[in-house]
Write a structure and sequence with these properties.
By secondary structure, the protein is α/β, with parallel strands linked by helices. It is about 30% helix and about 15% strand. A 7-stranded mixed β-sheet has the order 3-2-1-4-5-7-6. It has a two-stranded parallel sheet with strand order 8-9. α2 links the parallel β2 and β3.
Length: about 400
């Protein structure tokens, strides 16, 4: 627990609106430094700290934290030490989710051609400088198959793994769906846990499932649905409600929940008629399932009301699906709030990871250094599929990308 019974320390990089910190503090960690370059996010963190949003054990979130608005590229270990800490001070945990846009399917996937794609290197650099006992890293699933400097799918993730190992940390990677840990949202993300000398944590077992197996001794609970969350929330503020226009009502009326307005999508070599999908601004949510992944856009999914009319999910409802407390103090314009919420790390799954990391911390130092775990078999399957897809459509995709940039 540390001096005077204090919780083990956490330094939070790319803190955003605070999703990572909330989940980890619920798991027993104590944020001593949180930093982000985004002014809206930092204002949200400052307001939420001042409001004293409670943690379940009597603490309040971010109570002991130093909040730093800065670009991670400009920070050093000295900047991230708490006030009065000695030069050799080390945090128990360093956590962060570098911006995902370079690797996200929702963006252009420029990878290392996007300057944000290099921010991961600065998380590795600060790991080397601060020497935390444990590390937690989060990003989009697309990073599993992201190409590196040589254009090979999967190369980027191998580079990240090697970089942490080169500075002395054993690593383990997995993709986890937040819905499997009690979130009312289907959000699959890549996570890495790393350790210098403590036992390498095991990824937590899922607590929920779409169709729980009745034969399991420790039976998982059913997924939490969007409808359940909406029923538990207060009535939305009328100012936050965006109803469908008459034209959009006509478009949405015939849709079944869980479907949307179709798009023609991109034409590729093996799909000469084009991929089709659902318009991101025209999807009708299924209240009987967890929501789709919450995005940073101010055009979330539609819900059908009991009278048959439609409205969009509000930013407050999206924040609840991300696991934020109802009294978290989001600041800024409505579009800024949507962006902060959509870019956040989902709280419930991070809390589960935080407990796994806490188990490694409390077990103490290992006699010998831990060894990295191999990538899951799922990663290899995804990489092989991507390699085949690149052989079929790679040149065509490059031409499309060049035409839009």
């Amino acid at each position: 627990m540390g001096a005077k019974g204090l919780k083990p320390t956490l330094v939070s990089l790319f803190a955003g609106a605070g999703g990572m910190d909330i989940g980890l503090e619920r798991a027993g960690w104590r944020t001593v430094v949180a930093t982000d370059r985004d002014p809206g996010c930092m204002t949200t963190l400052e307001a939420s700290k001042a409001a004293g949003v409670p943690v379940s054990d009597g603490r309040t979130h971010l109570a002991d934290s130093m909040l730093i608005r800065a670009d991670v590229r400009d920070l050093s270990a000295a900047d991230l030490r708490p006030m009065g800490a000695i030069r050799s001070w080390r945090p128990a945990l360093l956590a962060g989710g570098p911006p995902c846009q370079p690797w996200s399917s929702a963006g252009l996937q420029k990878g290392l051609d996007d300057e944000r794609g290099h921010l991961i290197n600065h998380m590795v650099r600060l790991t080397a400088e601060l020497r935390p006992r444990l590390v937690l890293f989060e990003n989009v699933r697309g990073l599993v198959t992201a190409v590196g400097p040589n254009g090979r799918p999967g190369e980027m993730l191998t580079m990240i793994k090697n970089a942490f190992e080169e500075v002395g940390y054993a690593t383990t990677f997995a993709t986890l769906n937040a819905a499997d840990y009690g979130a009312a949202q289907r959000r699959v993300r890549l996570y890495m846990m790393a350790s210098e000398r403590h036992p390498l944590p095991a990824f937590p077992q899922a607590t929920h499932a779409r169709s729980p197996d009745p034969g399991l001794f420790e039976q998982a609970k059913p997924w939490v649905t969007l409808g359940e969350i909406l029923a538990a929330l207060p009535e939305p503020d009328p100012e936050d409600v965006v109803p469908a226009t008459p034209d959009r009502e006509r478009q949405l009326a015939p849709l079944q929940p869980g479907t949307g307005l179709r798009t023609t999508g991109r034409i590729v070599n093996n799909r000469p008629s084009g991929h089709w999908g659902y318009r991101q601004d025209g999807f009708l949510a299924d209240l009987g399932l967890p929501s789709r992944t919450i995005r940073a856009a101010s055009t979330p999914d539609w819900i059908r009301l009991p009278n048959g009319s439609h409205r969009r999910l509000t930013w407050r409802e999206c924040a609840a699906l991300q696991g934020f407390p109802v009294d978290w103090c989001f600041e800024g314009t409505t579009s800024s709030k949507f962006r902060q919420v959509g870019n956040a790390v989902q709280v419930d799954v991070v809390e589960a990871l935080g407990r796994a990391l806490m188990a490694a911390w409390t077990s103490g130092l290992s006699r010998k250094r831990p060894e990295s775990m191999p990538f899951p078999a799922e990663f290899g399957r995804r990489i092989r599929y991507t390699e085949a897809e690149h052989r079929t459509n790679g040149e065509h995709r490059l031409r499309v990308r060049a035409s839009v940039t």
